[in-house]
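Justification of resources, computational component.

The compute hours requested in this renewal are based largely on the per-chain cost of generating structure records like the one below. Each record pairs the submitted sequence with a full structure-token output. That output is archived, and it is also reused by downstream analysis tasks.
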Amino acid sequence: MTTLATDSQACVAQAIQKVTQIATLPEITAKIIQVVEDPKSSVKDLHEIIKHDVALSAKILKVVNSAFYGLPRQVGSVDRAIVLLGLSTVKNIAIATSITKLFRGQRLATKYSPKDLWAHSLATGVFCKLIAEARGFENPDEIFVAGLMHDIGIVVEMQVFSNQLCELIDSASEKGTALCEAEIAALQADHQAFGAGLSVKWKFPSMFQLATGYHHEPMKASAPGQIVAAMVHVAEVMACHKEIGFCLEGTDVQEEALELVELPDERLEELLGAFDEKYAAVESVMN
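The structure output for this chain reads:
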């Protein structure tokens, strides 16, 4: 291992330690992840955890009954929501709800606020879901949350390196240069590394670790995970195309990632057209 790699790992470890002292993953969310990742778990097991958190129960029902899911009739109970949507989807809603609380702060950069980063993350999540559905992906809600949290490494930087991050984003925005390169030069690691580090610390599923750690460099992920990273990468570029929230210049799609996603240009154009309605539906319940 090179000295540069060792320094980067040490920097990430120190930053994760600091940020987890500032923001902790809610205990109930950690329990939900643990239950859902256990193949022996049942609907009853998950409901036993959720029913004790009134706010989370209300949030789940609000999301389930939104236009984002488009169910034919209203769902009035959490156990029914779990039966209809499945353990994994309810887990994803719980994670998404927890993540929203992290996107707070005074500023991100001169042009951008934490709300702008959240809007961009939400847009990327929506495009992830649209791409996943178009490809017949087994669990599009999982990839939705993966897209939602892809830039969580920037949240880490926002908490730990606030002043430096503002300068880096301002400079990258002004010059149209890559943020990741500037981050590595100034901080010894980029937001992909910080995001993956936090995902590991909080024991998020491997899909989320892939999304946070490789969304700018999907081909550097291990072969089984490249498709997830590629989908998030393409979704982020599409979100930037829509110019929603935090988006730097010079965000270009990688041809190798497009090939992995396996959707023709005309299909991607259709997804761009379908985006606004989907985004409005989820924004109304997630914000």
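The two ends are 43 Å apart (CA to CA). The chain has a mean pLDDT of 88.
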